Amino acid sequence: MTTSMPTAPVTPVAPTLLREVAAPVQVVRAQDAMSDVEMLFRAPRLDAVAVHDAAQGRVGLLTRHRYTEVMTGRLGYGRAVMTRREVGQVADWDALVLDPSTTVVDAARTAMARDAARRHDDVLVPGPSWSAASTADLVSALTAALADRAARDPLTGLLTRSHLLATTTRWAAEAVAGTRRRLLLVGLDVVAMADLNASAGFAAGDEVLRAVAARLRGTMPDGSVVARLDGDAFAVLVLLPAVYDDRAAELTAVLRDRAVEACAGLGPRVRAATSASLAGWADPDLLLMEVERGLRSTPHAPRGLPPRAS
């Protein structure tokens, strides 16, 4: 009988594109009356509406700040004068419009480069239906994207060693402690990586490392975390279900072999080592130390045969 893997507490991936940050925006017609828009701005969280001018084929923006300013007017006569005016007469037709595929970094930089009066206006995003992103959301997404980038190996896109250890520590406390679950760390490294770099060049070696990373990501269970420990060494963190010791050992062997088999055909051989915690308790440093010691002591197998794992 197959035992399914439990869901692991995975940190959401930081948004990288504007489309991932933008939210649907209310669209009004340029010929609508300002009094009609007043009903929309009664919603406390509505900061702006998009204004569509079908005749001119353009889309503008009307912010809550601009609406309030216009309707108040000098000497308090704005509402009496403007309530029947068309929205198109007061909309900002020079609003910032960016393609949904714009990166969060570029979108935030472009938004913040606007003059002070418009710097905090929403950014409009075209599509089958219009959406918008606030500058605050862009800055927040930019901060998350930079933090995510710092946590990842630039060559493979995998988590770095330090962030793998941080994740292991968090899972040990949040998903393992007080349960019958346990953590499994599968380590894998490429045999004779230095020889490959010397004979085929560093570009070829980098391509192998990227291929190993991609195959591990595509092979390991959903919710597991794949990281690059250092030069040619990788690790996969898996949350095992609450099972007896013999079943945990079977799952460990299955995942170890799956990692090795995933890298078959890449050219260089790989070797693997594993370390599983006790049920209900895990020491992150010990898990990592045992895996790295296992990789150093595990001989690589002849071509075509799986390596022996610790």
Strand order of the largest sheet: 8-9-7-10
How many H/I helical runs? 10
List the uncertain runs.
301-310
The global form is elongated
Helix content: 25-40%
Number-wise, the strands total 10
Q: Structural class, from helix and strand content?
A: alpha+beta
Strand content: 15-25%
What summary fits the major beta sheet? 4 strands, antiparallel
The radius of gyration is 28 Å
Q: Report how far the terminal alpha carbons are from each other.
A: 25 Å
Sketch the topology as an H/E string, one letter per element: EEHEEHHHEEHHEHHEEHEH
Mean pLDDT rating = 87
Secondary structure blueprint with pairings:
Blueprint: E1 23-24, E2 27-29, H1 34-40, E3 48-53, E4 58-63, H2 64-72, H3 78-82, H4 104-112, E5 123-125, E6 131-133, H5 135-150, H6 161-176, E7 182-190, H7 193-200, H8 202-219, E8 225-230, E9 233-240, H9 245-262, E10 270-276, H10 284-297
How would you portray this structure in words?
By secondary structure, this protein is α+β, with helices and mostly antiparallel strands. It contains 10 helices and 10 strands. A 4-stranded antiparallel beta sheet has the order 8-9-7-10, sandwiched between helices. A 3-stranded antiparallel beta sheet has the order 1-6-5. Helix 1 links the parallel strand 2 and strand 3. It is elongated and about 85 Å long. The protein starts with 22 loop residues before the first strand and ends in a 13-residue tail after the last helix.
